[in-house]
Structures are given as C-alpha cells and as structure tokens.
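Q: Convert this sequence to structure tokens.
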Amino acid sequence: MNTNLPSNVHISRHPCLTAKLSRLRSYQTNSRETNALVYEIALIIGCEALANTVSVVDGSKEKSPLGYEYTTQIISPKKISLVPILRSGLGMLEALKILLPDPVSIHHLGLFREPTTLQPVEYYNNLPFNHSLTTGDPNTAAADLAIIIDPIIATGGTCVAAIQTLREWGVKKVLVVSILGNADGVKRAADEWPQGVEVWVGGIDPECDAKGMIKPGLGDIGDRLFMTLGK
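A:
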C-alpha cells in the first residue's frame, strides 16, 4: 500500500479483486468480459467501502415465519444517493445497488475531460434541489451520504469536480468508489474535502501519460464497456 497517500484513501487488498483487475487490464478482454469484470470488481470494492462507511442501527419490530418477534436492523445513514459519473460509472451501478439493502436514489452527473486542457466539463446534472431562496435554508433534497461511482481516477479533475458539486448540493459525506486510480489523482480527490470524503480504489498505478491516461491502466474503460472503440 502506498504510504504517501492520505489516510482517507483506501486500496483494496482482496486477492480476487487483484486477479480480476489484472485480467481487466488486458487488451484481449472483450466488451462482454469487460462488463462482467467491472461489475465483479465493483461488487468487491463496494462491499469493502460500505463496510467501513455505513453502520447498523435497530429498526422496527417484526415477526419471523414462526411468529417470534425480533428487532429489525437497518443501515445508517438512511438517506443515501448513488451518483454514477456518465458514462463509465454505469458499468458499476448495478453492483452498488445490489449491495445496499434498500432502494436508494440515483442521480447522474455527466462530466467529460476537455482533451487539450484535461479540465472537467459538466454537461449533465440531475441533482434535485428543495430549499428556500429567501431564507437560505439547507437543501432538504440532499443525501446524507453520496456515493460517487467512477471506474477511473486519473488526473483527479473529474472526481474533484463531482465532489465540489455534491458539497454545493449539501451532502454531509462523500464516498468515492473506483476500480483504478493514479496516485496523484487519487490524492488530489481525497484532499479536496479531507473531513468529508473517503476514497476506495481497487488498485493504484503510479503515473499518467501526456493525454491524462493512467499507465499501464485500463485504457478508455467507457469505450471498452460500450464497444465504442475507435470513435
């Protein structure tokens, strides 16, 4: 594990994830296999991340099939939103949905990297707002916990922009779940809001190339997921 990373960055040490990530790196892995591996890795890293982010609290009373009464257990915080970054974040979405015990809201953020400056550009945002413009009351539509889903953190610019947007929305905490990150980009994202952000990644690569692509990386994971290579 990279000891130079902030304490709010966590790298999976799961052997199965590591082996699946190695397979995902290969140029020979086709789109169907890519989708399956992204889902499976997201399931593992998502399980690790949620185990360290949410807690269990007592809920209402219920009865078992034999008629015995018991106290239900639910997760806290209750108000959670999944925020996939379009479009590659969609490949991880189902895994995170399955892990959570109850349905949660899903709010998409569309961000792309301007190819010359490598700066993020927002083109879509469906975060709901419900607050008074006159009194300045907090946005009651905001989640207590927002989970950013994005397979890659390269330069960190997209992740930082998403964190900034979610802070402005009014979330109390942000959990970032990614498959692979570049060390500098992950650090940049984690440092954006140290008290409110936890970053979980399946692996770390040391550098990016001149185009902002991680080396050796996964290539353009969105193109690989949706078979749009060579566009």
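Residues 20 and 37 are 6 Å apart (CA to CA).
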